[in-house]
Amino acid sequence: MNVLKNKRLRALGMTIFSILFLGGVVILGLTLDKGNIVTHLEIRNAPPTLEHLFGTDWLGRDMFTRTMMGLTLSMGVGLLGAFCSTMIAAVLGMVAATMGKVADAVVSWSTDLFLSVPHLVMLLLISFSLGGGAKGIIAGTALTHWPSLARIIRAEIMAIRSADYVQVSRRLGKPGWWIAMNHIFPHILPQLAVGFLLMFPHAILHEASVTFLGLGLSPHQPAIGIILSESMKYLSSGLWWLAFFPGLCLLFAVRAFAAIGGNLRQFIRPSSAHDAR
Amino acid sequence: MQLEAKKLSYRYGCYPWLFREVDFTLSPGEVVGLLGPSGSGKTTLCRILAGYVKPAEGRVLLGGKPITRKGYQPVQLVFQHPEKALNPRWRMRKVLKEAEVEDSILEALGIQSEWLSHFPGELSGGELQRFCVARALGKGTRFLIADEMTTMLDAITQAQIWNAVLNAQKQREMGIVVVSHEEKLVARLCDRVMRLSR
Ligand SMILES: Nc1ncnc2c1ncn2[C@@H]1O[C@H](COP(=O)(O)OP(=O)(O)OP(=O)(O)O)[C@@H](O)[C@H]1O
Ligand SMILES: [Mg+2]
Fold it and tell me: Whose Cα sits closest to atom 29 in ligand 1?
């Protein structure tokens, strides 16, 4: 019992810490003075000091401010893209599993189609045809990341619909919507949450690569992908702080999302917490 | 109102026929035993009678009419394995709420109130089976199909559960099908016996 309690406490601590970290980044990203990231040539290439925690770059811009703003922007883009994609997966999975053979065939066919074209190519095409920018990237990630999750959701719903306890429920006279809300949705919620959290780092990394190729966010927006790709050029000249701190922060942000996701799953699925005993 | 099966035949996919042209009638207040060796299709027949599976040939009629799929079904089935018949994410309280079981039945089955806050994974097979029986004994149940309902229980629990079920049966004039491998139990409970062979 004590071990279980410790485990729960640690999980709770990790979750709170992660939420505080992400919340802090977003608050800083939204409130820090934009004046810190205009050109100050007199303080350029300064290593980390108390005044500039992450140092400054070749134009004298404060890297701490850039990193926080970049992370906030990237998280926004990534979250929105991953969220839309999860929704698409949920709806299509549900349609495929419940609306009959024709709907299932259509969804399966488009799932296969989207899976057979490389992610990045599709993403580039969609971003490009929407004229680039944040809108293009969000639409691109939303439209390219759903297929594998949709497949999982479809299989899960199919399996649970034939489970004995759902059949019993139907024969107890429960209407379809009641069964969906009480049996099926709680069952696929963890899958959706996990799918969403696994998609999130993908979305950020794809945002970075599309941006790097010049089809994503404009170079004036301090997205984390832009910061990292720019900083690569200065690594060899000894300006290690340009890539190190932003990279580390990105890592922490991704880890924080994973931690929240993992603990959320435990919370939603009490049976897995009981296994720990 | 009678539960009638007319010329039922069933096979799984391309496997050989499990049974062919089985006729069966169950009247209110009647307790009928269903015996047969393992694998003879008892569970399959139960699932067909309760409307979980469509027969390959033949029909199941309730009061002379085909079974509708809407609303509370007067024919309820208790499964052989209770752990598969309960949502693992639900506390037992919710299971009882889903079926709107009367308190008198809970009492007769010996369901204890501290079990209500547990998940299925935290209760024993016998405890779980009591919930499954309670769930099948809702107000609208006219026929109960008990597929090896008490096979994994000790004699005392077995007696307690059957007592509760038979009391409800007498009160409401229910018809019951008893599937079991125990000839003694069947002989004690049933008015007549039907045998399936391989
Ligand atoms: N889903 C399935 N697909 C193919 N064959 C099946 C399936 N379910 C059951 N069978 C086969 O059908 C036969 C009858 O199974 P059933 O469960 O009805 O037997 P039973 O009389 O209830 O046996 P027991 O007394 O062991 O419970 C068995 O030979 C079994 O292997
Ligand atoms: Mg059986």
Answer: B39
